[in-house]
Design brief:
The N and C termini lie far apart (56 Å). It is globular and about 75 Å long. Helix 5 runs antiparallel to helix 6. The strands form two sheets. Strands 1-2-3-5-7-10 form a six-stranded mixed beta sheet, with helices on both faces. It has a four-stranded mixed beta sheet with strand order 4-6-8-9. The protein contains eleven helices and ten strands. The chain is α/β, with parallel strands linked by helices. The chain binds octanoyl-coenzyme A (CO8). The site of octanoyl-coenzyme A has 20 residues, from helix 2 and strand 6. Keywords: Fatty acid metabolism, Lipid metabolism, Lyase. Its EC number is 4.2.1.17. Belongs to the enoyl-CoA hydratase/isomerase family. One of its GO terms (cellular component) is mitochondrion.
């Protein structure tokens, strides 16, 4: 992992078991250009394969985790080009990484920056973190999961409000709504220290169980409503194989209390 040279990110190992990836395009507030994402994907592939590493932390600067996709790169693109090339589809690679990924967010996490954080497994935020999906202000909508992941996390009404108005939301709101697991510290760099400490703790567990745990949580989270409803209905059907269903429904019809036998 050390041999490769990166220009738009930095890779360090604050402790042997944790890879710390720092987005490093300060002049553009870490706007997520295609070359930046190529580097990010490359390093993620490397750290995922490195047996010494048990967790990954992604962070930005104090001012910006990432201010979104690179608007200047996108602005003149035509429909035929973005659709034809499946523009930005390589953003999803991060969701296939097996190792736990913690986002340590300070400053702006807007648009694609917010979506990048939402693609990580855990988000820790500094009190300065500012989240938002301002794409509506640019005549577009979130394209890397913002509408879907926020809706699942904070519900329809809040997601609609944020996505339709484009307003930012604070670290405190993000914590209250469960977008982030915790708001951490006051001082500069605190959130990164805390994320590395959490990563080190996670890395001390068995790697197979960790991989399985991540897979299982994602499975629960990624079921579609259709699949969930189908699963629910099948379980409902299966209860007709129990005595308790016969007893419970008979008791209702006979206007008496049921005597369940748990069989
Ligand atoms: N893209 C390109 N450049 C950017 C971006 C960006 N997203 N954000 C900031 N910059 C640049 C600015 O243009 C400026 O450059 P320059 O110095 O050359 O003028 C530099 O960064 C500093 O920015 P500001 O001077 O604007 O700094 P301020 O402190 O005044 O403001 C803000 C900070 C509020 C964060 C402001 O920069 C801003 O509003 N940025 C844009 C935020 C935004 O709209 N993000 C959403 C982008 S769209 C998106 O992310 C869609 C994702 C879809 C993914 C689809 C996958 C299939």
């Amino acid at each position: 992992t050390r041999a490769h040279t990166y220009h738009l990110i930095n890779l360090t190992r604050p402790v042997p078991s944790v890879a710390l990836i720092t987005l490093n395009r300060p002049k553009a507030l870490n706007a997520l250009s295609s070359p930046l994402f190529d580097e990010l994907n490359h390093v993620l592939k490397d750290v995922d394969a490195d047996k010494e590493i048990g967790a990954v932390v992604i962070t930005g600067s104090e001012k910006a985790f990432a201010a979104g996709a690179d608007i200047k790169e996108m602005k003149d693109k035509q429909y035929s080009e973005v659709y034809g090339s499946n523009f930005l589809s390589h953003w999803t690679y991060i969701t296939s990484v097996k190792k736990p990924i913690i986002a340590a967010v300070s400053g702006y996490a807007l648009g694609g920056g917010c979506e990048l954080a939402l693609m990580c497994d855990i988000i820790l935020a500094s009190p300065t973190a500012t989240f938002g999906q301002p794409e509506i202000n640019l005549g577009v909508i979130p394209g890397a999961g913002g509408t879907q992941r926020l809706a699942r996390t904070i519900g329809k009404s809040r997601t609609m409000e944020l996505v339709l108005s484009g307003r930012n939301f604070s670290a405190a709101e993000a914590e209250r709504w469960g977008v982030v697991s915790r708001v951490v510290g006051e001082g500069e760099g605190e959130v990164v220290k805390e994320a590395v400490a959490l990563g080190e703790k996670i890395a001390s567990k068995g790697k197979l169980a960790t991989q399985a745990a991540k897979e299982a949580v994602n499975h629960a989270y990624e079921q579609t409503l259709t699949e969930g409803l189908h699963f629910e209905r099948r379980l409902f059907h299966s209860l007709f194989a129990t005595n308790d269903q016969k007893e419970g429904m008979a008791a209702f019809a006979e206007k008496r209390k049921p005597n369940f036998t748990h069989s």
